[in-house]
Design a protein that fits this description.
With about 450 residues, this protein is an alpha/beta fold. Helices cover about 40% and strands about 15% of the residues. The longest helix is centred in the C-terminal third of the chain and has 25 residues, at about 410-435. It binds S-adenosylmethionine (SAM). S-adenosylmethionine (SAM) binds next to helix 1 and strand 2.
Length: about 450
């Protein structure tokens, strides 16, 4: 799938999407330092551009005809670390929506802080995207469930032309790992810089970088790492110590065990505890902050999902930390990118909420009949390759065009149509109950139901 990225920073999101199989056509950012870092690490297609200037950028993007536009507009105005006044930075979320609405790719993906979901600017941007015909799924994710050892909570909005809202929510939830990734998972042997694949002959090597393709996996490749394996000396110090310090943004805990995810990486995450924290540590700290292992900038970069081969280019350390803290961790982008590609290829279909059965039951259906309706709706969705339609008439017409549908008995066809009608009524009612942000931006958007 051909992608254009807006507000691309140093390229965390692009890197992750490319690893999922996307083709990144061009990336735009106003900060020359970030663009240089992108071009040196991801590929030479990032350009410096002010995305407020729609007249300069939109014609350029239209020519590229991307199938997806993605990006993480600046978040300082919504961020819990900022002062939450919506100003110029927040307007860039609207610029993102205006560019998507004009170019109208099949898909878009936008990342921001959780606070963005309830903002007046997002309500305005969302209305633009709805008017342009997108079905929208708003996902509140925790990055530690999508491949990085970091409790980074973010809003990931995914849209596709013509879909019903929440069309991808169940697949995003299903892609989350059951357990959060911990620092030990990253710095320990399992996800270390080197992977042990016992060689079949002495002439071959046994240790492979985790950033290159593995050798052919054979039965005997699946072996525990030998006791003699030595982790990188920097990582070994952290593993041995067992605790790291992360400067808390608010009055949070500063000391973390390596058996838990790291808090959200910020520009100051790597700093040693100062006198202020040491004189008033958090009561729940499991170890004195002064005794914790120090995190290097390289390690902060890895906690944020940048691979070991990634190189940072700037004489200013603050710039490097800013680029690291800004990024969408590449593994998160990879995981969500795969969710998108799977749906695009018809490999997944939206789950139908258990609430549908209760709703049917309340409308007088027996339990068995309600189950049959739900099964028929699921079958119809799978026939459509997981595609939903905001417009019921189109949804039924799409079904009727399928050769498999035409070959069905008349009674089965009518069951499938009726199941779609009922499901559309149920999902529309549920959607209206859950979200009324367009008319009244002050009203909070209801929480995303994890297992919709
Ligand atoms: C949250 S960061 C995005 C990080 C990126 N998604 C990644 O994975 O590394 C926001 C980016 O927006 C850029 N930016 C801010 N104002 C801009 C503008 N007017 N036009 C283009 N980019 C802008 C910043 O330089 C910053 O790199």
């Amino acid at each position: 799938m051909r992608v254009v990225e807006l507000f691309s920073g140093a390229g965390g999101m692009s890197l992750g999407l490319r690893q999922a199989g996307f083709d990144i056509l061009r990336a735009y950012d106003a900060w020359p330092v970030a663009v240089e870092n992108y071009n040196r690490n991801v590929g030479d297609h990032a350009v410096v551009a002010d995305l407020k200037d729609l007249l300069s950028t939109v014609p350029d993007i239209l020519k590229l005809a991307p199938e997806m536009i993605c990006g993480g507009p600046p978040c300082q105005d919504y961020s819990s670390a900022g002062n939450r006044t919506e100003a110029n930075n927040a307007r860039l979320t609207l610029a993102f929506a205006l560019i998507v609405a004009t170019v109208r790719p099949q898909w878009f993906m936008m990342e921001n802080v959780i606070g963005c979901a309830k903002s007046a600017t997002w309500a305005e941007a969302r209305a633009v995207l709805k008017r342009a015909g997108y079905g929208i799924t708003e996902n509140r994710i925790n990055a530690s469930r999508y491949g990085v050892p970091q409790s980074r909570r973010r809003l990931l909005v995914i849209g596709r032309i013509g879909e019903r809202d929440d069309f991808l929510a169940s697949s995003v939830a299903a892609a989350a790992s059951a357990h959060p990734m911990t620092l030990r998972d990253l710095f320990g042997a399992t996800v270390s810089a080197a992977i042990y694949f016992p060689a079949t002959s002495e002439a071959r090597r046994s240790v492979w970088s985790s950033d290159e393709p593995a050798p052919t996996i054979r039965e005997r490749s699946i072996r525990p790492i030998p006791a003699s394996y030595q982790p990188h000396p920097d990582d070994a110090a952290i593993i041995q110590n067992g605790f790291v310090y992360s400067r808390p943004v608010r009055a949070g805990r500063g000391v973390r065990s390596i058996d838990e995810p790291f808090p959200t990486v910020t520009r100051t995450s790597w700093e040693r505890p100062g006198p202020k924290y040491l004189s008033a540590p958090h009561p729940a700290d499991p170890l004195a902050a002064s005794e914790t292992a120090a995190l290097s900038i390289a390690q902060a970069s890895r906690i944020q999902g940048f691979p070991t081969w990634w190189t940072w280019h700037s004489s200013n350390q603050r710039d490097i930390l800013q680029m690291i803290a800004n990024a969408v961790p590449a593994p998160v982008a990879t995981a969500l990118g795969r969710v998108i590609l799977d749906r695009e290829a018809g490999r997944t279909a939206p789950a139908i909420s258990g609430g549908f059965l209760q709703w049917l039951h309340k409308r007088g259906r027996s339990k068995a009949s309600a189950r049959n309706v739900k099964a028929s709706a699921g079958r119809a969705r799978r026939l459509l390759g997981g595609r939903t339609f905001d417009n019921l008439a189109l949804e039924i017409a799409a079904l009727e065009c399928l050769p498999e549908f035409r070959e069905m008995r008349k009674a089965t066809q009518s069951d499938l149509r009726q199941a779609f009608r009922l499901l559309a009524e149920y999902e529309t009612n549920r959607g209206q109950r859950r979200k009324r942000p367009l008319q009244n931006p002050e009203q909070p958007i209801a929480r995303f139901e994890e297992a919709a």
